[in-house]
User: Fold this.
Amino acid sequence: MSELGRILIVEDDPKDVELTLTALEEYNLANEVVVTRDGEEALDYLYCRGNFKMRTSDNPAVLLLDLKLPKVDGLEVLQQIKSNEKLKMIPVVVLTSSREERDMVASYKLGVNAYVVKPVDFHEFVNAIKELGIFWAVINEPPPGSIRKK
Amino acid sequence: MSKPEISSPRVTVLKFGLAIVSVAIALGLALLAQVYAIPNLEFPLLLCAIAITIWYAGNGPGALALLVAVLSFEYFFAEPRFSFYVHPADRPLFVLFILFGFIMAWFSSRRRRIERELREARDKLEIEVAERTQQASLLNLTHDTVFVRDMSDVITYWNRGARELYGWTAEDAVGRRTHDLLQTIFPAPLEEINAELLRSGRWEGDLTHTKLDGTKLIVGSRWALQRNAQGQPDAILETNNDVTERKRAEGEIRKLNEELEQRVVERTGDLEMVNKELEAFAYSISHDLRAPLRHMAGYAELLQKNASSSFDEKSRRYMTMILESAKRMGDLIDDLLAFSRIGRAETKKTKVSLEQLVKEVLSEVRPETDGHNVGWRIDALPNLYGDRAMLRLALVNLVSNAVKFTRKRPQPEIEIGCVDGKENDIVVFIRDNGVGFDMKYVNKLFGVFQRLHRAEEFEGTGIGLATVQRIIHRHGGRVWAEGLVDQGATFYFSVPKSWEE
Assistant:
């Protein structure tokens, strides 16, 4: 594992955060993870404003985005990212409980890179997170200007 | 007033009697005149007798009177008297008698002809008067309002119905101008109405009239134009029916309809709102109910992993139960969401090859056979119209049910076929030789969460057949089942061959 891309998780549910982090930890993918708890915070991070004014301006290697979020919801975050010249290259994976077709269609229309329904079964869930983490943070070559840890 | 002539034998005898009697009287008077030496009276007297007979009794008795008069004259008055000898000098007198008879006969026949003609004309007139009287009294009988007005709108006839409707008697109304009397309000300019009347001879429409007591009423009015022998319009027959009540009722119905429409719009709005709420509800189930479930499963799993070494057999079983329950709840939510989605989704109708669809379904369901050697029998299957994805889901449910309930058979057999239904329907059936069911529970088969087997016997959420039913109903079809305990079951559904909106 030569380089590890930074994973930005946008998830309001602390239990989901914990379970996701547990899954990532299991495969040593948790080091470069940033967790934001709502859409606004995620956008603050991406635009380097508010609490994230001081961070380096590089983009995360992947963004794991829940759809149902307080303040600014996932689809709106996605729409803002994909319509911003600097942010639109960030790979965005929607990670949601919703199997509703309209969410899926809306996400793909906005240019999402992947859509994953969180499995109820824990083994499947851990597997899904692991594979997502490995693929996007390790295997995939992120666009230039992404944060990667040597 | 004379009766038509009756020619009975009695009358004939009387007529001939008149001839004899009149001549006899004339003869008597002439003889009397002779006694008193009044000269030359016999000839005019006898002529008178002949004339009277012809005039009153006709030509036959006239001829007799003529004969008797000539003979009497010859016998009593012509020289030589009291003999029938005819003196040549008397001959012109006899010619005069006969000539006179002819002239009288001619006069008499003229008179009779004129009399007959007069009688006929009078009879005709009488019949006509009777007819007219009857017509007028019939018009008077009808409850319909009928009146006649001339071309300057002056009323010339006014029936009982008109009196009852408007209040004026015929005496009051006849001679008045209609539109003044009734204060008519026309639905169109009067010139247009009159033009129509003159062109086609009739007009129909609703008029507003005012009665004697001042109340207004709406009448359905029919006008018919009468033309005289020269083809000139000379009268208008107007028949009116009071439609005030009907108009009011129509207005009420219209109002009710509008209200109903308004209510339908409101209800539709309500329904749409409820539908939206339901959708939001389903969405929230999909999203929010699944999360805690995932957490339960997740943490239980983590607990099992971290502490399984310190667990005894019982605790491990509890953990397994928790995980199984979480999984089952997840399946239930998924099935319920799929079920509710069928109710909400639009059906996309296309021509579907049932044969192809069954092939796909079989390849999807085959893994569920768990290596059991199922004897499949698939008949030739037709095309039908419907939503492919939905029909596929229905078939998957039915076929995987068949697989599930034949699992314990040593030689499972499943048949898929179809029969031509009534009219535009195709009936598809799935038959198995599985555990079957008791027909007394047949009504429960298609209900949501209804199950006829214990969970440890056969797994399932109890939504599959409800889903099938909902899909088939959305296609305008019908589902039903036949079965016997331990003898297998057959599930049928009907779908239209072609789609009719």
Q: What stands out?
A: Chain B has 13 helices and twelve strands.
